[in-house]
Automatic annotation (TrEMBL):
It comes from Gadus morhua. The lineage of its organism: Eukaryota, Metazoa, Chordata, Craniata, Vertebrata. GO terms for molecular function: 4 iron, 4 sulfur cluster binding; ATP binding; DNA binding; DNA helicase activity; DNA polymerase binding; hydrolase activity, acting on acid anhydrides, in phosphorus-containing anhydrides; metal ion binding. InterPro entries: ATP-dep_Helicase_C (IPR006555), DinG/Rad3-like (IPR045028), Helic_SF1/SF2_ATP-bd_DinG/Rad3 (IPR014013), Helicase-like_DEXD_c2 (IPR006554), P-loop_NTPase (IPR027417), RAD3-like_helicase_DEAD (IPR010614), Rad3/Chl1-like (IPR013020), RTEL1 (IPR030845). This is Regulator of telomere elongation helicase 1. Keywords: 4Fe-4S, ATP-binding, DNA damage, DNA repair, DNA-binding, Helicase, Hydrolase, Iron, Iron-sulfur, Isomerase, Metal-binding, Nucleotide-binding, Nucleus. GO terms for cellular component: nucleus. NCBIfam families: rad3 (TIGR00604). Residues 855-866 have a biased composition (Basic and acidic residues). PROSITE patterns: HELICASE_ATP_BIND_2.
Length: 1090
């Protein structure tokens, strides 16, 4: 690996860096040497992550070397150890600032990114460097716990309480091994991401969660999600010592939002009522159990609380609920007060600095007590939320100063809870109707991300570096942080001019001006012109086309207009349309369909319609053919009438008028424009993903012609902006651009309809490999890094894995085996065995089932919406059931986290063994938390035994507002269904007249030939076809063929009778000659009953 020296620091870099990479590393080192903060923007594909790691670790090694050089110089007293290498050349920073440095002063590096998926990618980059620092990665119990009982808990806070209880009792074998394994060299010196750490934990039977905290004490670089740093509660929980540390925020374009959310909350009536119910249940239980002595002095077992104390807690919560609901607020505006009002409000419920500790301790004890109880499920999320709220509000102590001054960045807003009428709250399966009442919401909103940044600086950190591919506009971004950033960089790109086309489209092909302003966005002429514009660009843009709208309502109404007026049909004919759904449930299916469409060598590509700030605009990689062009249809300003947006702008205006010395303040209007520009910049960043990539960007709004709007675009992009007075000239130039680009940078063609999982989208562009050696990220990325380049984890449903991958770890597809009986020798032992049995019987299900005709984004992808010209395969009813089950399980895996998916799978296993519907409902309650997963909860209906289906259907109707399509016959057992079949068959057999059918009344067992020369099978099928038509005859033929293979007589009879009894005058055409000898007795019994 080549060595280079920047600012006196020697860096071991994997390849000869580009100029923009040298500039970036120089700025990083400048921040570290001068102990100042920096904000560094470098476009995606410029090797940002690799540069950041190499520069930071090289500087740290250099810092260590200078200390060694000073110590050796002191020992030698002026003499030289090596004549040809003077000690002075070993390092020139023997002191750091004014003081002498020691080995204990060597800074730790804390590398924070938005998600664990991104951190995994960063760690895989670290493996590609020459540096091998001691490291650790911090995560939550959700990701790291391997204790089976803790993993089965309903929610994160329940896992926390159970884990703490087991650790305190030393009943967790994994935790008990941490002290011994914490010094294991293989673990201490290994570079491991979360997945590696969990694997190592399972291998060594040691807790990954507590092992990572042990490794943290000696780590030189620590990786963590950046909410661990910005959220004061999380920072205290992680016990992070930040003094002298270097803090790096990668993908920092979301830091502003996380800073604000970490010191904000919304307390809903549901939260309070559910907390009161839990406290009341504990109080009632203990009061009932106090049979002797004074009830008020009776102490709860496992709690350091008497009944009187629990009653007092309940009363305080009731008082808080009453205080919040006592304010009369209008449904539109609500009631707004300064942040310090929160103390006045809480004081009315006797919640103060003096009572805070006792209150939080009591809530913690009650939560632990309830969590530890077996055989009962109570939703303790409300208790946990209240505890966190009290800790946030009363985070300081009165003696440390006036805490109200720190509340100046916050606002209290009380408003009506209208969510019950719009979207259901998180649902507790066993919640009573009282938890569903309406009331007021208490909101406590922070409007200054600078509060969290200033708090970090007060911890004594050395430097804070914020970096991302899209931080522009930098001036407004740094103004919001309210700490100085002496070092700033808006880096150039590694691409050439012939790789990027940027055009401002202020009017469509019909000459109508394009605008997404409030008064123009839904004007028919404007929507029609935009539709014509997209259709025309679809003709000249090869492969994948991305279209971003300002919001979901704008996208919905525009697409509706296009469908009604033919624009959608024109686009569809050239590039089949795929639309980003609002919820999680269908996103992976839609994006997979888009990828497959683009990969289809016989098609002209596809078009993907999405929303700025949506799932597709952040963290999703549309490299190469998956995103050859982006169309921005307007400026995505936040909803101006939203109370939080209005109060934020008002807060900024008031702050800017104060003109605080040394602090740059952003006005409300500046912030409002900044939000739109940054959302546009994020969407634009989906296209050019590495050095050899190319693409076009179309800014389809007349406001993009304004110089002040263009100034908000990334600096590297501005020189490429082209302005046209004629739409036709732009289309001509775009066509020429792509002709030249395709000739100069041809891609290796992919197989039709297929996609290489190692090089397809869904990989986040590796910062180093994206531009090293001039090769594509997907080609150069090592296999070990590819697991870290899946779609972003902030959308769990984006973890697109092939079904075949699940077979390897036992998480295979599931087939229904509950309602039907099988011989004991064939019956699957587990759900996984059931799947294997189903696959052997029916074969696998195709993976590319998504049609290119779907414009639905908030409906299930049923067969009709997938339809179009898709070939329909006729299968039997039972085979359709298996196929639906597999699709259901696949969809559930995509929509849920791995932990929740496993929980539901375990619940299904337990249900099969125990036949206990209550256990299944309790464990599957995770599917009721989000309205988007209600359909998955209803989908469990197909796995239930008949005697539970009616009850479950009623419960679904109550909890989700929709039933499962229950019919009376669904409750019939197998024996009852058989009796019904025999009864129906008996009625139909009365019509049998063998003298007129098939063999003219001859013997059923012989081999006969009809008068037309056909054999019995041909004659039989001809008669069936003539009576029922081709479709039913094909189904019956399939049933007969299966019967010949699997000897499943009951399936044959069930399907045959189902087909042959649809009309009263149908003749029974199924004769004994096609029934195997050992089944003839049963068949004759059917005839006899007839």
């Amino acid at each position: 690996m080549p060595l280079l020296t920047l600012n006196g620091v020697t860096i071991n870099f994997p390849f000869t860096p580009y100029e923009c990479q040298n500039d970036y590393m120089s700025k990083v080192i400048e921040c570290l040497q001068q102990k100042v903060n920096g904000v560094l923007e470098s476009p995606t594909g410029t090797g940002k992550t690799l540069c950041l790691l190499c520069a930071t670790l090289a500087w740290r090694d250099h810092f260590k070397d200078t200390i060694s050089a000073r110590k050796i110089t002191e020992r030698l007293k002026g003499a030289e150890m090596f004549p040809d290498m003077p000690v002075a050349t070993w390092g020139t920073a023997a002191t750091d600032g004014d003081g002498t440095t020691y080995y204990t002063d060597i800074p730790k590096i804390i590398y924070a990114s938005r998600t664990h998926s991104q951190l995994s990618q960063v760690i895989s980059e670290l493996k590609n460097t020459a540096y091998r620092p001691k490291m650790c990665v911090l995560g939550s119990r959700d990701q790291m716990c391997i204790h089976p009982e803790v993993m089965r808990q309903e929610s994160h806070h329940m896992k926390v309480h159970m884990c703490k209880a087991k650790v305190a009792a030393r009943s967790c074998a994994f935790y008990n091994n941490v002290e011994e394994k914490g010094t294991d060299k293989d673990l201490v010196n290994s570079i491991m991401d979360v997945e590696d750490l969990v694997k190592a934990g399972n291998m060594h039977r040691v807790c990954p969660y507590y092992l990572s905290r042990t490794l943290k004490t000696q780590a030189e670089i620590i990786f963590m999600p950046y909410n661990y740093l910005l959220d004061p509660k999380s920072r205290r929980a992680q016990n992070l010592d930040l003094k002298g540390a270097v803090i790096i925020f990668d993908e920092a374009h979301n830091v502003e939002r996380i800073c604000e959310e970490s010191t904000s909350f919304d307390l809903t009536p549901y939260d309070l009522t559910s907390a009161i119910e839990v406290v009341n249940s504990v109080l009632q239980e203990q009061a009932d159990g106090a049979t002797n002595g004074n009830v008020l002095l009776f102490f709860v077992s496992d709690l350091n609380l008497n009944v009187a104390a629990i009653a007092k807690i309940k009363q305080m919560l009731l008082d808080l609920e009453a205080v919040i609901d006592s304010y009369e607020v209008s449904s539109e505006k609500g009631l707004t007060k300064p942040g310090s009002f929160i103390f006045e409000l809480f004081k009315k419920a006797n919640l103060t600095f003096e009572t805070k500790s006792a209150m939080c301790d009591a809530l913690e004890q009650i939560t632990t007590y309830v969590t530890g109880k077996t055989g009962i499920f109570m939703n303790t999320a409300g208790l946990q939320k209240l505890s966190e709220i009290f800790q946030l509000v009363f985070c300081g102590e009165p003696k440390e100063g006036n805490p109200e001054k720190e509340m100046q960045a916050n606002t209290v807003h009380i408003h009506k809870d209208n969510s019950f009428n719009k979207k259901p709250q998180k649902v507790d399966v066993w919640a009573s109707s009282s938890t569903k009442k309406l009331g007021n919401i208490l909101s406590y909103w922070c409007f200054s991300p600078g509060f969290s940044m200033q708090d970090l600086k007060r911890q004594g950190v050395r430097s804070i570096i914020l970096t991302s591919g899209t931080l522009s506009p930098l001036q407004s971004f740094t103004a919001e942080m309210q700490i100085p950033f002496p070092v700033a960089l808006e880096n150039t790109h590694v691409i050439q001019r012939d790789q990027i086309f940027v055009g401002v489209v202020d009017q469509g092909p019909d000459g109508v001006q394009l605008s997404s302003t409030y008064d123009r966005r839904f004007v028919p002429e404007n929507m029609a012109s935009l539709g014509n514009t997209v259709a025309n660009f679809g003709r000249v843009v090869p492969h994948g086309l991305l279209v971003f709208f300002p919001s979901y309502p704008v996208m919905d109404k525009t697409l509706e207009f296009w469908r009604a007026n033919g624009h959608a049909g024109r686009i569809e004919n050239m590039k089949p349309m795929f639309v980003e759904p609002k919820g999680k449930s269908n996103f992976s299916e839609v994006i997979e369909g888009y990828y497959n469409q683009v990969n289809d060598a016989t098609s002209k590509g596809g078009s993907f319609f999405a929303v700025c700030r949506g799932k597709a605009s952040e963290g999703l990689d549309f490299s190469d053919n998956y995103g050859r062009a982006v169309i921005i249809t307007g400026l995505p300003f936040p909803p101006k009438m939203d109370p939080r947006v209005m109060l934020k702008m008002q807060f900024l205006d008031e702050t800017s008028r104060k003109k605080i010395p040394g602090v740059k303040c952003l006005s409300g209007s500046d912030w409002y424009r900044q939000q739109a520009s940054r959302a546009v910049n994020q969407a634009i960043g989906r296209v050019i993903r590495h050095k050899e990539d190319y693409g076009a960007i179309f800014l389809c709004d007349r406001r993009f012609k304004n110089a002040d709007v263009q100034a908000q675009l990334p600096k590297w992009l501005r020189p490429y902006i082209r302005r046209y007075d004629n739409f036709g000239n732009m289309v001509r130039d775009v066509a020429q651009f792509f002709r030249v680009a395709q000739k100069m940078r041809p891609l290796v063609p992919k197989a039709a309809g297929g996609r290489d999982s190692s090089s397809g989208p869904g990989t986040l562009c590796s910062s180093s490999t994206g531009c090293s050696g001039g090769q594509s990220n997907s080609v150069q990325a090592p296999l070990a890094a590819q697991k870290a380049k899946l779609l972003d984890s902030h959308v769990p449903s984006l973890k697109r894995r092939k079904l075949s991958e699940y077979h390897s770890d036992g998480m295979a597809r599931l087939s229904i085996q509950y309602s039907t009986e099988m011989p004991s020798s064939q019956r699957p032992g587990t759900l996984m065995d059931a799947l294997a049995h189903s696959d052997r019987q029916h074969g696998g299900e195709g993976a590319s089932g998504l049609s290119t005709r779907s414009l639905q984004h908030d409906k299930d992808m049923d067969d009709k919406s997938r339809g179009g010209k898709r070939k329909i395969k006729l299968v039997q009813e039972q085979e359709n059931t298996h196929s639906k089950a597999r699709r259901f399980l696949t969809e559930m895996r995509k929509s849920l986290s791995q932990m929740n998916y496993q929980k539901v799978m375990d619940a299904l296993q337990a249900y099969k063994r125990l036949d206990d519907l209550g256990v299944l409902q309790a464990e599957a309650a995770v599917l009721l938390v989000d309205a988007n997963t209600h359909v998955l909860y209803r989908g469990l209906y197909k796995f239930l035994r008949p005697h539970h289906k009616k009850l479950f259907n009623e419960k679904c109707q109550e909890l989700t507002g929709q039933g499962c399509g229950y019919k009376e016959e669904d409750s019939l057992s197998k024996e009852e269904k058989e009796a019904l079949v025999l009864q129906q068959t008996g009625k139909v057999l009365k019509y049998l007249n063998t003298s007129l059918q098939l063999n003219k009344g001859g013997q059923h067992l012989g081999v006969h030939t009809s008068s037309d020369g056909k054999g019995p099978r041909e004659s039989f099928l001809a008669a069936v076809k003539g009576t029922f038509g081709a479709e039913m005859s094909n189904q019956l033929l399939l049933a007969m063929r299966r019967y010949e293979k699997d000897d499943d007589y009951e399936s044959l009879i069930t399907i045959a009778v189902g087909l042959l009894t649809q009309k009263d005058d149908n003749l029974v055409l199924l004769e004994g000659k096609f029934v195997h000898p050992h089944h003839k007795k049963q068949f004759k019994e059917i005839q006899r009953r007839g």
